[in-house]
Specification:
The protein has 916 residues and is of the alpha+beta class. The protein is 54% helix and 16% strand. The radius of gyration is 62 Å and the shape is rod-shaped.
Length: 916
């Protein structure tokens, strides 16, 4: 019992044997036909040991009718006489002419090339090439290959008379091909039309298609081998003529039926558009070629009707439309794996035909150029020519194939060739979006596709690469598993079991092919392609080029996606670093990164401004040289408050904290955070002072209210008694003391009221320098009386600011009076007024005994005085401090025992038009 695989192998073996036989006999027949291009110039009949000349067509041969050729160049004139004479060059013949022996110098006539046969031989070679490719492809067709082989044999084999043994074999083989070609044609066209598949009766009648051919071939065998003895013919010539008429009638009848079968298939069968277009082209070609041949040539010839030669030629020429139609169908609609088959077969046919023709012509020239007695030289020359032509066959075939490919694809040829270079370029592309767009655009342009799209795998879903990837097309599990193992998957035009609806939906969207993209068996995407702009499907070369390009593109896409991931991670790191740097930079606290040795490696702007240095100069400097505050707190301990004085500023209060900086499992340095608490400390102190002053103010107001009433009575009564008491009365002096003390008590009470009273202040532009000069003028007499020297250090330009002139004058006067009271006879008071940046500064310095350290922190407390019993009330500095604080400034004291005291009033110099 034979299996389908065994049967297919047997059919393939049969086809290969038939094709090998046709090629071998075709080569022999072609060689013999080429040799016949050299005419003998006479017609002769072979005898036992000589040739008898029946007629002479070329007098230059030196022969006459009736001559008997005995020797050719000293060799007996036997069966090889035609071959020897066609070898070229001059030959010496020994001829019996009548009763005499004559030596004749034989010169062969000029060549008579049969261009018609050469053209037919070329067509035969094309048929052979197409048959070989049809068998080589996976979708092979045995019937088509046999039909091509029979057509090739008919075109290649042409008998050369007179027939010898080889000639008879070639004649029989050519006859077999002629009688088999009609039923093979009908059988093939019935199969293409679908009649054999549609009707069981037609399948049973297939053997009977070859019955007429078998009968005709038996008749040929009898005529060729037995002289027609079994057919009881009286005249072989008439029998051959009659047989030719039967063969022509057979061919015409089968050709007409073949064309009709194709048209029936078009009308009756419901075929896909692609197969229908194939049948349309084949039906048009068969009708155009076979119908005129059958009606105007074959059938009339079979009936004994003859036409003029021109009419015969015109009726035979349309037969060329049949192979043209097949070629057109092959080139356009993938019949037996696309028209590449025909183009490559044509390239091989042209190359082989050209090579054989060139060899025959060169061999003929060698024969004619060399003397007849040099057979070895002729063989060596022919062998050298054969080697040279064989060496040129492969490069010539490639060039011819490239030329036909260029003609086939026309303007798209260069774009197709550019796809190979595109694959290498894509490997260097790192932008995934640009890579996807270039890939789809170049494929669409090169193959003239209606549309194409690229889907990329993202989280087990296929996302469109060219539309921003906003919505998924489908999930990976919705696609059949086999799609990732195929080079290309043609999309179905109807649903089928196991595939789901995804592929059908893609097909309904106009896509015809799905090309999977994978790297190391991991799916990364899917390229979808539609048909060409003219409706043609992609041929095998298109699919191979696309597959080769996509293999490189898949790797390029994978590289681009990996780079995109790395860039994304790098961007995240960069954003995180920028965010961290932004947090550090935006922090009002000074932050510095220290290495293990305490060297600054990085610092923010606030740290540089705190130190009063340029930020660029911080990196690489030891912290001890920038911020000499002693030992830093240990990481994890509470912050430390340390005093620090910048070279160009007052003492500051700094809060210092340290955290460990970890780089991996081991610590890699420290983070120093420094906050300037000076202003906050001052504000806290000012707030405490305000609270204290408010409490004192309430107390002072109450005390003043309660004390003023009795003081007023005491003062009035003391004045009344003083008026009634004579001056010489001892009580007069006592009453004067009472009066002075009541006035002093009233002054103290009024001071307390001034301290507690919340006044409304009228602020305006003033010149602090001029205000200080006015205060000095008011106290100049007192300075003179105490022999005090006053030194002024005033800014040459006006020091303008906004404030209450009366209150600020009170502050300056209180400071000057305190300085006068602190000095004994003589001494020096220095008054300085100048601008310090955006601040206005008043400094009063004396050379008195100074203030004790234990008193230095209390000098601004209300009712505290170091001149108890000397007229001091302890309210002047407290009131001055309150005024300065209301102006947004601060007042400070610096003193050492024995070195005098210095009071500094620092006020904001608000911007005033026209001031510097």
């Amino acid at each position: 019992m034979t299996t389908p695989t065994t049967e297919r192998r047997a059919q393939l073996l049969l086809c290969l044997v038939v094709l090998a036989l046709v090629m071998a006999t075709g080569a022999v027949g072609f060689s013999r036909k080429l040799a016949s291009f050299q005419p003998l110039g006479f017609r002769g009949e072979e005898g036992a040991s000589h040739w008898r000349v029946e007629a002479v067509a070329e007098p230059a041969t030196g022969l006459v009718a009736g001559d008997q050729i005995l020797l050719v160049d000293g060799t007996t004139a036997g069966r090889d006489l035609p071959r020897l004479l066609r070898a070229g060059g001059e030959h010496h013949l020994v001829v019996a002419r009548g009763e005499e022996l004559v030596t004749v110098a034989y010169l062969p006539p000029p060549l008579a090339l049969d261009f018609g046969y050469l053209l037919l031989a070329l067509v035969g070679l094309l048929y052979l090439g197409i048959a070989l490719f049809a068998l080589w492809r996976p979708a092979r067709s045995t019937l088509f290959a046999l039909w091509c082989a029979a057509s090739a044999a008919v075109y290649l084999l042409s008998p050369v008379f007179p027939l010898d043994g080889t000639g008879r074999a070639l004649y029989l083989l050519e006859g077999l091909a002629r009688v088999l070609l009609p039923p093979l044609t009908l059988h093939l066209f019935l199969a293409l039309s679908g009649l054999l598949q549609a009707r069981a009766r037609m399948r049973r009648l297939r053997p009977f298609l070859y019955l007429p051919a078998a009968l005709l071939f038996v008749a040929q065998l009898d005529l060729a081998l037995a002289g027609g003895r079994h057919l009881a013919v009286t005249s072989i010539a008439r029998a051959i003529a009659l047989l030719d008429r039967f063969e022509l009638g057979h061919l015409g009848f089968c050709s007409a039926l073949a064309a009709a079968a194709l048209w029936w298939g078009l009308r009756r069968q419901r075929l896909p558009w692609e197969e229908r277009r194939v049948l349309q082209w084949l039906a048009i070609g068969a009708t155009t070629g076979y119908l005129p041949f059958a009606l105007l040539y074959a059938l009339p010839k079979a009936a004994g009707i003859t036409w003029p030669p021109l009419v015969d030629l015109l009726t035979i020429l349309p037969l060329g439309f049949v192979p043209v139609a097949f070629a057109w169908a092959l080139l356009r609609y993938r019949l037996w794996d696309v028209g590449v088959l025909f183009r490559q077969g044509l390239a091989y046919g042209v190359t082989i035909t050209g090579g054989l023709g060139l060899f025959a012509l060169l061999d003929l020239l060698i024969r004619r150029a060399l003397p007849p007695g040099w057979p070895l030289s002729h063989d060596v020359g022919s062998f050298a020519v054969a080697l040279g032509i064989a060496a040129l066959v492969v490069p010539t075939q490639r060039r011819v194939s490239s030329l036909f490919e260029r003609l086939h694809y026309g303007p798209t040829w260069r774009r197709r060739r550019a796809l190979a270079e595109l694959g290498r370029e894509l490997l260097h592309e790192r932008d995934l979006d640009r890579l996807s767009r270039v890939l789809v655009a170049e494929l669409t342009d090169a193959f003239e596709l209606t549309h194409a799209d690229l889907l990329l795998v993202a989280d087990d879903r296929l996302m469109p690469a060219l539309s921003g990837g906003q919505s998924a097309i489908c999930s990976l599990w919705e696609l059949p598993e086999r799609i990732w193992g195929e080079p290309v998957l043609p999309l179905p035009l109807s649903g089928f079991e196991g595939e789901g609806t995804t592929l059908l939906a893609l097909a309904e969207a106009g896509f015809r092919y799905a090309f999977p993209l994978s790297v190391r068996r991991r799916p990364i995407g899917l390229l979808l392609a539609g048909p060409k702009a003219d409706g043609e499907p992609l041929n095998s070369e298109d699919l191979e080029i696309t597959r080769s390009l996509l293999d490189q593109a898949a790797l390029a896409i994978e590289n681009a996606r990996l780079l995109e991931q790395v860039q994304g991670q790098l961007q995240q790191v960069t954003d995180l670093k920028r965010r961290n740097e932004g947090i550090i930079e935006s922090s009002p606290a000074g932050i510095a990164v220290l290495d293990e040795a305490g060297v600054v490696r990085q610092a923010n702007l606030a740290f540089a401004e705190l130190l009063g240095v340029r930020r660029e100069s911080l990196t690489g400097r030891p912290l001890a040289s920038l911020l000499p505050i002693g030992e830093l707190p240990l990481p994890g301990t509470p912050p430390a408050i340390v005093p620090w004085r910048r070279s160009d500023d007052d003492e500051r209060q700094l809060q210092v904290s340290v955290a460990a900086l970890r780089r991996g499992p081991e610590p890699g340095g420290r983070i120093l955070v420094v906050q300037d608490l000076t202003e906050r400390t001052r504000l806290e102190q000012a707030l405490q002072e305000q609270d204290r002053l408010a409490s004192l103010g309430l107390l002072a107001a109450g005390v003043a209210h309660e004390v003023n009433t009795p003081l007023t009575g005491i003062s009035s009564y003391a004045q009344m008694l003083l008026a009634d008491t004579p001056e010489d009365d001892p009580r007069h002096a006592l009453l004067q003391k009472v009066e002075r003390q009541t006035f002093r008590a009233a002054h103290i009470v009024n001071g307390l009221l001034d301290f507690a009273r919340q006044r409304t202040h009228e602020r305006r532009e003033l010149d602090l320098r001029r205000l200080a000069e006015e205060c000095l003028d008011l106290l100049r007499e007192r300075f003179s009386r105490r022999a005090i020297r006053v030194v002024t250090e005033l800014d040459p330009e006006p020091v303008r600011m906004i404030g209450d002139e009366g209150e600020l004058q009170q502050v300056a006067t209180n400071l000057l009076l305190n300085a006068v009271d602190a000095l004994a006879e003589g001494g020096t008071i220095t008054v300085a007024v100048h601008r310090a940046g955006d601040r206005a500064r008043l400094v009063v310095t004396d050379t008195g005994p100074g203030i004790l350290p234990e008193h230095l922190g209390r000098v601004f407390d209300p009712l505290f005085t170091t001149r108890a019993g000397q007229g001091g009330t302890g309210l002047g500095l407290a009131i001055s401090q309150q005024i300065v604080l209301r102006h947004g400034g601060r007042i400070e004291v610096a003193s050492r025992p024995g070195e005098g005291a210095r009071f500094t009033v620092d006020l904001p110099a608000e911007a005033v038009a026209g001031t510097r």
